[in-house]
Amino acid sequence: MNPKTMYNLTYGLFVLTSAFEGRDSGCIINTAGQVTSDPNRISITVNKSNFTHELVQKSSRFNISILSEQADFALFRHFGFQSGRTIDKFAAYPDCKRSANGLYYITAGTNGYISAAVEQTVDLGSHTLFIASVTDMDVLSDAPAATYAYYQSSIKPQPAQTAAPGKTVWRCKVCGYTYEGETLPADFICPLCKHPAADFEKVVS
Cβ of 78: how many Cβ atoms within 10 Å? Predict the structure, then answer.
């Protein structure tokens, strides 16, 4: 079985935002889609370790900002590589507005946003599936939506493709961080994007 087959699935990229008791946060997700058109419902899947997951679970409402090909890596680093538990991601962040539901949406590097109210949840182990009714939405630009493949090829910084002679390097497939060593510890966590060892690939010298 070739696990890289999963990379051929088409994924969009989104900033998921929510708030509860005065605390706002947001994170990057790649699983959002329409599930019914009448009534209009969408679904999102969120890792339980994300602080934004906690806010969605408590408030039962969220926004998704649809990332476009105009998004830069700084946006991914801001919302994807740090935790809302330890930093206020919206403090002095200029490219956002509040929608009618009181939640932030992202105005730069996006082509639209959707506001939703949670109707059902499904426990998936490491993640939760939220099924929600759409309460508001708007188009922000005509820029094409960014896919995960586009992020990999055109947004994420491209590190050297090979290791130096005699060196073994492990590269994070999410952010490009490299770890030098013959073996990568099984419990290694990327210091930039916090992804586990399973998201690293060996770079052949």
Answer: 19
